[in-house]
């Protein structure tokens, strides 16, 4: 069977790094492009980090283009450098050279070009704020039919991680999230905190990754920052790789069990700005919301794939 065509839209980001490398070590997909967005850190840094990660995997052939530097409508200054380090890669960015060139087209044009050229439908995996995806669908509605599915990490039905109500990616650009989740009709699987928080990996998992070879050790070093922050915040030797959970679903559809429901995104300026809820009326189309999975199997599957990073790169 020919591989599924995939584009990742990302704001690396410690868990974005794991997610990107997971896609690159998964033979079921062909990663056609990486587009970047502001989010965990500023756009210039997320873009440099995406280029660094492709270089680490010896995949400088995959185009990287920069997208939105800010949300669609209302400026939002909050970043997540506490969890990702000021360089976005846990203080280890300098250990990864950025040899992958920057594609001058920009994210929306690159996404559109990939969709237009694709002979089979493309899966989009946005794992940062949804700004680029909202722009793509606004500027190129004629290409919506070329998207097989959007698998997005974001939202929380029960309690946020940025405010009490909102998860980071949605809080970063609620208007974009509203457009993509509630107004468009492209099939979407949303992977919220409700499931990702259960999919933590522990120190032993990370140690196994670190021992597999130099590239795996570099990734483990990046993730270690998240592990230390989690330890400080919650007193547990764990790290949550939110974006890798979503990308595993994009790579192996059906990994996560979903419940279909219409969603609304709170775009007001109260304490619940950015909250994602089951919509009261069914005016919005239904979205597949991932709520459960076989967690031990998922952890093992992500690790099994990442461990091939050194072996696979050595034979590439
Ligand atoms: C999401 O926010 C970011 O900090 C992570 O990279 C992930 O995409 C989790 O809420
Ligand atoms: Ca992210």
What does this structure look like?
The structure is a single chain. This protein is of the alpha/beta class. It has a single domain (4-314), classed as Inosine-uridine Nucleoside N-ribohydrolase, Chain A (Alpha-Beta Complex), CATH 3.90.245. 40% of the residues lie in helices and 18% in strands. It is built from 13 helices and eleven strands. It has helices spanning 14-24, 43-56, 81-84, 107-117, 131-139, 168-172, 174-183, 193-196, 203-210, 214-234, 242-251, 295-306, 308-315, and strands at residues 4-10, 29-36, 64-66, 122-126, 147-153, 188-191, 201-202, 238-239, 257-265, 276-278, 286-292. The strands form two sheets. Strands 3-2-1-4-5-6-11-9-10 form a nine-stranded mixed sheet, sandwiched between helices. The chain has a two-stranded antiparallel ribbon with strand order 7-8. Helix 5 (131-139) links the parallel strand 4 and strand 5. Helix 9 (203-210) packs antiparallel against helix 10 (214-234). The protein is globular, with a radius of gyration of 18 Å. The two termini are 21 Å apart. Residues 312-316 have low confidence and may be disordered. Beta-D-ribofuranose is lined by residues 13, 15-16, 40, 80, 83, 127-128, 153, 161, 167-169, 242-243.
